[in-house]
Amino acid sequence: MINIRKLEAELWESADLLRQGSKLTSSQYCMPVLALLFLRYAYSRYKMVEAEILQGRPMRGGRVMPVEPNDFVAKSALYLPREAQFDYLVNLPENIIDQSLKTKDGQDINSLGEAVNYAMQLVEEQSEQLTGVLPKTYTMFADDLLRELLRIFNNKTIDEVGGDIIGRIYEYFLSKFAKAVASDDGVFFTPKSLVKMLVNVLEPTQGVMLDPACGSGGMFVQTGDFVNQAGLDANTSMTFYGQEKVEYNAQLCLMNMAVHGLNGKIVSGDEANTFYHDAHNLAGRCDYVMANPPFNVDKVKAESASAAGRLPFGLPGVNTKTKEIGNANYLWISYFYAYLNEHGRAGFVMASSATDSANKDRDIREKLVRTGDVDVMVSVGNNFFYTLSLPCSLWFFDRNKHADIRDKVLFIDARNYYTVVDRTLNEWTEWQLRNLQAIVHLYRGEKEKYQRLIKAYWAALSEHAEKHDSYAWHETDMTFEKALGILDAEESLYKETIKKQQETLKATKGKKEKDGIKAGIAADEAELELTLSTKTMVTEAVWLVSKFGEDGIYQDVPGLCKIASIQEIEEKNYSLTPGAYVGVAEQEDDGVDFHERMNEIHAELAQLNKEANTLMAEIQKAWEELK
Length: 627
Fold this sequence. Notes:
This protein is of the alpha/beta class. The strands form 5 sheets. Strands 7-6-5-8-12-14-13-15-18 form a 9-stranded mixed beta sheet, sandwiched between helices. It has a 3-stranded antiparallel beta sheet with strand order 9-11-10. The longest helix has 38 residues, at 511-548. It is globular and about 80 Å long.
């Protein structure tokens, strides 16, 4: 398994080198480092696509015909001239002047910084949307510093990492050493699992997609992956539009899209301030809208926002003295709805407080609910963001809901459903994401999609059983619960075997014998990891099947999900907080008498208070004696 956290720590080391070796601000040195990461990832993708192109490549004169830029365009990939390839830069000798290197315009290249600048220039020439985006300021850094950065990024892990890596690493950088940038306008970036949840519920296939607060472009990347995995081509099926007020972030977005082979139209700067501009003139024209806007923005000019339109439900509360909107959450919510065409879908991240905020917000929410276009509401727990620990909600609109659910909303409370990455970060795994998506499928009456997921669980389990063939796996009435028991036994067996091998290793003296035992331990540890991974997967299958069965019969599950009617929502004063509808999960009896345990706790507390008072008296006495 790829250790993303280890990779991030290595990248932090590289940024720390820049901090020590220069006097640049965080915003100045973030971009050069991320652009090197971009170049490294672009090179990884280039080599992968090059290998695909060379398969079955025609020969001429006994030699395989070389790859050309057009070959990469056909595969929606970025072509890298030799001087822009990462291994070329890594392997440049220290005495660059002696190499007599020149640009294609005949300019001398006298330092590693100039060589990296030239590489960025060459990359921009291969992509119109990257023109003027990549930094060319590497001569600010000493060559030995740049060489060390290249060395740090030249690791195999980056080759194995997919998805929105630039957005994730950028977010990590902000949390580590760029707090000033992180707090600018309250901007932070969307974790991959939240983006995937948005995409999974919206299920984009073709049409116009807008992210009016696009940050580093994670929504576009995950949408592209989803469309491509469905057997379509994202660039021909989708048209991507983005607005990002912070130009720095827009540059990251364009880099991120380019390295994933996506084309898009991204506007940045003042004209991309969504509060005052519909930069692409997309009101009422979007098939999909996705966003993670900054939460709780204040001091938005009410008159300018009103003049900019896209407010089908009116303005939120305005301070009559300052003529400013005190909280812009419902501006964003109104925009996301206004951008949709008659069959459009929207999915976005929003502050949890917006689901039941009062006054004008409540009035807008009532109008919104009465349209029948509110589709799904999901509560998300703490620690899903790097830079903030606050909970949030995922909102989904669908202007073309099926008639059977036209007057209904699916509420999911997922605050207690997640996987802990570490002390400060939670996420949804791939199987957890698919389980949450499965609940949405049942709500929409798409039982066949639910059953496909169950088949996927069985297929993954069967693959494990074939590799770990034993009598236990041949039971005719196998269930996921029984499979968990078998996996528990496998886990215990591997752990016991590894323990015995480690004991044998300690008592063994010969090097050859030690090496053999170490190899056996490594092999068993790898098998143990596979067993634990399968066990995690089957645990998720049990979680899902215990609630909806293998056939997929939707039912409201206390503490998790409920389908509520508009009438029920009206009765709760148009709150869209999932917890208000799903209730609390039934607690299993743990055999502990509540009142008895509370009495014990009070007795323990009384004893602790008594001991504390005694200690304070002794301290006071000692203090008096010192006077």
